[in-house]
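Long-time lurker, first post.

We've been arguing in lab meeting about whether zinc ion would sit comfortably in this protein at all. Half the group thinks yes, half thinks no, and nobody has a model to point at. So I'm putting the question to the forum: if I give you the sequence and the SMILES, can you give me back a predicted structure of the complex? Inputs are below. Any interpretation is welcome too.
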Amino acid sequence: MSTIDGEDHVIIDMAFQHLAGRVWICPGDPDPASVQAGVALVADERGSVLVDAGQSPAHAREIRSALAAAGLPPPRWLVYTHHHWDHVWGACAWPDVEIVGHVAGERLLREEAARPWSHRYLREQVRANPRLGPSFRARALAVDSWDGFAVLPPTRTFTDELELPVGVRVRHVGGAHAPDSTVVAVPDSGVLLLGDCFYPPPAHLRTPEDRPDLALVRRLLADDVHWYVASHQPPMTLDEARAAGAAAR
Ligand SMILES: [Zn+2]
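Top reply:
Settle the argument with this. Predicted structure of the protein with zinc ion, as tokens:
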């Protein structure tokens, strides 16, 4: 369902879609300019696992409404796939969650948390480094108010792997996109959540030679994992992920 907000913008309502087993996904905005990552929820009556926080408190609140509308149990754990803003800036709008993230991301997010975020600061940073423009303009549009805004480092870190009590496995893969890139496996549902792990570095750090890391995609393929979910595109079946991984062999 979509609504028109009185001007000429179409607002697509956030909604959770069932993927497989216990896994639900809430896709982000398909417009790349809005830099909005999707999130996933592993539903569990003992407390769900939310994978990524949304790009802003406003986005997180929309996701929370969508969760309630779908009747899904609220999250007790929030797992960061990596430290990039469009995956973590919504965290401060999720109450009562333990935030799980890789130890390298924790260091980076401590630095991010110390920056004086505001629309003025975003403008100054873009003036000093124009390559930040697309990312920082998207942040300026995503955050309507800085009141109560905070970048939250993970409260529970890991180095290689971690298993949450609800059968969700978190594994560090690293790579060129982000040093803390982490994949989240839900074995009983045949789903692997990839975050942005195989994407090239973020735009302001990218060189013309950078390509998606298809070798990483191939390493992650497994016959008992039927769905592969990256944050900025529709889910891939095993066959689609195999084809994507083979593309530039
Ligand atoms: Zn990213």
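For your lab meeting: The chain is about 25% helix and 25% strand. The pocket of zinc ion is lined by residues 82, 84, 177-178, 196 (CB under 6 Å). Whichever side wins, do check it experimentally.
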